[in-house]
Amino acid sequence: MINGEGRVHTLRAAGVSLVVDLGGVVPRVLHWGADLGPVDGDLAAALRRTSVPAVLNNSPDVPRAFSAWPTEQDGWAGTPAQTGSRAGTASTPRPRLADGEVEESPDGGGRISIVLGDAIAATRAHLEYRMDPAGVVSVDMSVENPSDAASVYVLEGLRALMPVPERASELLDFTGKWCRERSPQRMPFAFGTHARRARRGKPGHDSPFLLAAGTPGFGFAHGELWGVHLAWSGDGEYLAERLPEGAGALSRVLGAGELLRSGEVMLQPGERYDAPTVLFTWSDRGLDGLAARSHRRLRARAHHPAAPRPLVLNTWEAVYFDHDLERLIEIADRAAEVGVERIVLDDGWFRGRRDADAGLGDWLVDEDVWPDGLGPFVDAVRGRGMQFGLWFEPEMISPDSDLAREHPEWVLAPREGAGPTARNQQVLDLANREAYELVLERISALVAEHDIDYLKWDHNRDLVEPVAGRDGGDRPLVHDQTLALYRMLDELRARHPRLEIETCSGGGGRVDLGILERTDRVWASDCNDPVERARIERWTRLLVPPELIGSHLGARRSHTTSRETDLSFRLAISLTAHAGIETDLTTATPDDLRTITAWAALYRELRGLIHTGDIVNADLADDAAMLTGIVAPDGGRALYTWARLATSPEGQSGRVRFPGLDAGARYRVRVRPELGGASRHEVSDPAWMCAAADGGAELPGAVLAVAGVPLPTLNPQQALLFDVERLP
């Protein structure tokens, strides 16, 4: 039991402190941010003493608090942690600390577990703060309707909320659309509530992705930031809130939680709702500092991919629905020649699937297209030394399918009838056990039959009117549908331990750390246009490390934007992630094949660095240029991509600093020539570049990292790779 005066507890790791006061009626967060060092009695008492704000005019007669489970009983007029009622009553929860437990980890961090009783709501709640060795704070919450309760408790919302200080005066989050995901938007942290809500049955292409509050003018390499991410693949909400009276002794609030639809969670006596995990990350090293903590956290997982990430070829933009064994084997021949290590057969292999109009849900090989089944192609791929992967879209159903004709009640839709299709498909009710079992067994059978190495798991539409018949009426099921998805992924991986799964949702419509607990990479976008891709992946890397982001070489003329780009630029942009190919290699010229082969060898050489290093970004005044680097954990080697996306008023870059290098070291800088030349908008390169292009230029770290060096003025849609090695 933890209660009483003086019960201040601290979790510390990687330069971060979370200080929680368990001495009051409801616990409070006294500090979240820079490490305060060991919190002894004097420091704890000082934090508690300074946590009490003034009593303002025209306010409650006691100081306003902001508790770990904020409600109106604290004088908090903002968004509460918990909303719900019992048939319209018991709508003002008054949580009280009932029990708790603190456990410190020898590797840094630990957990603080809190139990809250509530006489008014008649519920029992659990709140757990956990800090990992990377300094990331995860918050898990649950609400239980006790087994002896007299009625149903309708939960309307449960949100993890954390206070942040007044200096966090700017906000950053993201919006987007198909093929332009994770487009940043910045704004002042103004009074009121900045709320972002996803009602798409998934995070969506316009997902907030990460909501960060920071000191004025924060950038990639500078500024103090507090960020929040909802690790959940269904509906969600993010909020940043600022009231005139503040939030206790602090000024503002960040939070997130699942966005529950009306009547979605009705807790019968004895039932419990477990909220999705919410992750809070602090950095005093700008956005790159947030990324570093997130990447360290993900890379420390026991199931994080450990083997080198194989070079992939996906057949979609090469053949689309035109599946022909001879043509596909010819593509496999070219793939093996250039160094591909895995081929993924995309959409179009199953019964009736000659276009996007039919077949989803049946998951049976089309005998007309594949009279001998998939075996001959799988054997051809494996015979050429490559792994085999297959595309599925298990959460969807085509109206023109045997499954829809046999079980129209399995469509996730009101009983009055389904609304309009999207991409000629509806959503399959995976919360229906029979539908779930059928899809699971058909996928599992194919994986077992062909010993499939890899699944591309797609999800091409929003969930609109996501209700189905339950308990005599239409009940919202986004929550149950998301949990069913998680169960299916977990079951497939349990049955097939070597199986890898890529998550795709019309490209980047479901990129979150909930789905990444069960998958091995994300497809960041359906857009293989390198100009768009460079921006999309730059921001995706705020949470997701490069080895978990698929990035493919597309055709010269982009399938999604019709923009034409040089091969060298497309290769450069797709190199620094989990690289792949999504173009028809049988149409490539001999010169292009040689360049692609050299690029594949370069990827194999550098992926040990790319997939373990720290991401760094230069803060440039010119938005049309990017300098992005990956620095080895020991600092001994780094790879930088200097890219120009468009023209800009400046004719010269000026001195550009290479972030992440040691000012006290000395380095050799080489321009990697494997991808071919980059077109310049200049007569000649800066003088120092001559040596960099001819064996390597030796420069002090103080020049590279502090003073900076002038870089070539590239033409739009061009890029150079700098390979930087620390000298003894």
TrEMBL record:
Q: Which domain of life is it from?
A: Bacteria
List residues of the Glycosyl hydrolase family 36 N-terminal domain.
27-267
Give, as one word, the top-level EC class. Answer: hydrolase
Its keywords, alphabetically, are:
Glycosidase, Hydrolase
**What PROSITE patterns does this protein map onto?**
ALPHA_GALACTOSIDASE (PS00512)
Enzyme Commission code(s) on record:
3.2.1.22
Q: What is this protein called?
A: alpha-galactosidase
**Protein species of origin:** Microbacterium ureisolvens
